[in-house]
Fold this protein.
Amino acid sequence: MTVDEDLALTALRSQRSWGPSRWPEDRGGHVWPKDREVVTDDGARIRYTVRGAEGGPWVVLCSGYLCPDNFWRGLGAALMERHRVVVLNYRSVGASTHPRATGPHATGPGTTDLTDEDFSIPRVAGDVAAVLEAEGAHDAVAMGHSMGCQVALQLWRSRPELVAGLVLVTGPFASPLHTFYGSRLGAHLFPLARHGLPLLPRALQRGLLKSPRLPIAVPVARLARALGPHTPAEDMADYLRHLGEIEPTVALRLAHGMHTFDATPWLHEVDAPTLVVVGSRDTFSPPELGERVIERIDPSELVTVEGGTHAALLEHPLEIHDAVADFLHRRLDGPAWRRLAARDAVSEARGWSARRASA
C-alpha cells in the first residue's frame, strides 16, 4: 500500500459523526446518527439520515444482519462526496422501533407480540422503499452488504421503479445457512436454536447476545476465519456493542427471515445493472455465490477482493470503492447519473488540457 493509500484509508476509517441521539430508545452503534423518520404501514418507525452531495444521484445503503451502519464507514463516506446517500436502520435495529409502535419514542409492543412476518425480507425491503418514497428518491442504486444483498434484491423485485442499479457485497441471494462455511449444517441446527433459545431465561438470552462484546470475541472470530487479519477491531466494536442491545426474539425472527428468503426462482428476471463483490476468503457467503449471480443476471459484473472475508467492506474499502465508482460511471443511466458522468467528462478533459499545457 502506498503512503497516499494509507492516508486515504486512515481518513475513511476515522469517519465518525456521533452525537446525542434524538431518539431516547436508540441502541447506538452508528457512524451517522439518524435524524429523520418515516412510519411504515405496520407502524414501525424507520429512522434514517441523508448525507452527501445535494442533487447527486441517489444511493441507499442496505446493511447486513442486525447491523446499524458501521460496515459502511469507509465506502459510505467516499460515496457521499458525489452522491446523495441514504443510511437507514431496519425495524428494531439501531434507532428504529419495533412494528406497531404507539408513539414517537416508543420501541413498540412487547417482543412476544412480534411475528415472523414482521421480519421477513419483503417486509424489511418495504422499510427501505418507504424511506426512498419519503425522500422522493427514484433511480437509486441499492447497495447491499451480507443480508442487505437479499434486501436490495427484494427491493428491486417489489419496487423496480425505485432501483436504477444493484451493488451486492459479500452477501447471499438465498438462505446463508445453506452455504455457511461450505456446509448445510447451519440449516439443520437453526431450528433447534430458534425453538430452544426462547425457552431460556430472559437474562441468559440477553447474556448470549452480549457475549460478543468480550475482548476475546474478535480474536476468536479471526481464528474461525469469520474475520481476517486486516479487519479493524475498532470498527467491529461498534457492531458488537449494538448487538448486545438487540432483543433476542428480534435476532431469531430476522435470522428466520434470511433463512426463508430465496431469490433463485426469479434472479434471472433482474434487469438492473448489477455489480457483485465477493471476498476470496469469505466463509459466510463463499465467492461461488457471486459466480452464480452473474450467471443469472444480465447485465452483471463480478469483482473478487483477494484476501477479503465477510468483512471486506471494512478490510478493503478503497479497493471496493474504486470498483463501485468505476461500475457506476460506466453502467448507470438516468438524468442525475448522466449529469454526474458529464461532470466527470469535463473534469477529465480539463485535467488532460492542463497536462498537455504543462508538457
